[in-house]
Amino acid sequence: MAGDESACPVDHKAREEWLAQARAAEASKAKSQSQPPPSACPVDHSSAPPTRSWTQSLTSYFWSSQPEPQSSTAPPKPTNGLDTNRVVSSIPRSTSNPSACPVEHGASANAEIESGKDASGNWVYPSEKMFFDAMKRKGYDARSKDMKTVVPIHNAVNERAWAQILKWEQPYLASSQCGGPKLESFANKMERMTPTARINTVLGYTAPFDRHDWVIDRCGTRVDYVIDFYSGRGDGKAGPSFYLDVRPKLNTWEGVKMRAMRWTGLA
């Protein structure tokens, strides 16, 4: 894991999908903010106040961010208007895998010494600048203004995946003696389509644009999850649309038991 730069909860390959949806969202936002032509009606009908964009609404729910530490001796690097703050996720990190996220989350991604408090133990998302620099190094057609939309997508998709995992883990939370499940590791497996995704594709459904496997530590019990990422259908609302198919893998007895309990309504 530590040597695989592509092993992030949502892979760099998926960022092409984010860029497309982010730019579509910005185009829709710009269109909605354009001034309408003057009304020919002699009575002035005042328009409703503009609604907040999806990015403005989304970022208001994020966890407080921590500043990216700067060396006291080295001159500050130019940011090109990109934010250097980092958002602490709601995803606890298992201490059995102390390495930081290998995709540009930084060697001290889990350290919050800047705040003067103990580390939360949660994964920390990259800042806009870190995200932009990583995409440029990977050769993606990234623009600075894209980061205002792409980074929230990155964070929100990970949070949604974790929320769905917690639904699977809910029956085990009451008896948890270690504070609940934690994310231990993750890997991109896009080159190997899941049986479910392959069957759906044969039936005519759109193939997922990415796949990841997350390893969860449940108080010493390893639980493997698979996540298929799909582009969602537009519902007329501003912002990108994604669908995540999250379920335990059937490679262990624990996964088989969890799936069976869900199918039979026992969990």
Instruction: Tell me what portion of residues adopts beta-strand conformation.
Output: 15-25%
* First-to-last CA distance: 32 Å
Major sheet description: 4 strands, antiparallel
The tally of domains stands at: 1
Number of strands: 7
Q: Overall pLDDT, averaged?
A: 73
| Percent helix range | 25-40%
Instruction: Figure out the total of helices.
Output: 6
How much is the radius of gyration in Å?
Answer: 21 Å
- How do the strands line up in the largest sheet? 4-5-6-7
SSE run: HHEEEHHEHEEEH
Label the overall shape.
globular
Structural class: alpha+beta
* Unreliable residue runs: 1-7, 37-71, 98-118
Written overview of the protein:
30% of the residues lie in helices and 18% in strands. The chain has 267 residues and is an alpha+beta fold. It has one domain. The strands form two sheets. Strands 4-5-6-7 form a four-stranded antiparallel β-sheet. β5 and β6 form a beta hairpin. The N terminus is likely disordered. It is found in: Mitochondrion inner membrane.
Short précis:
Helices cover 30% and strands 18% of the residues.
Present the secondary structure layout:
Layout: H1 15-33, H2 54-59, E1 65-67, E2 85-92, E3 122-124, H3 128-137, H4 147-173, E4 182-188, H5 195-202, E5 210-218, E6 221-231, E7 242-248, H6 253-263
Antiparallel strand pairs: 1-2, 2-3, 4-5, 5-6, 6-7
Spell out the key features of this protein:
single chain, 267 residues, alpha+beta, four-stranded antiparallel β-sheet, three-stranded antiparallel β-sheet, 7 strands, 30% helix, 18% strand, globular, disordered N terminus, mitochondrion, EC 4.4.1.17, membrane, mitochondrion inner membrane
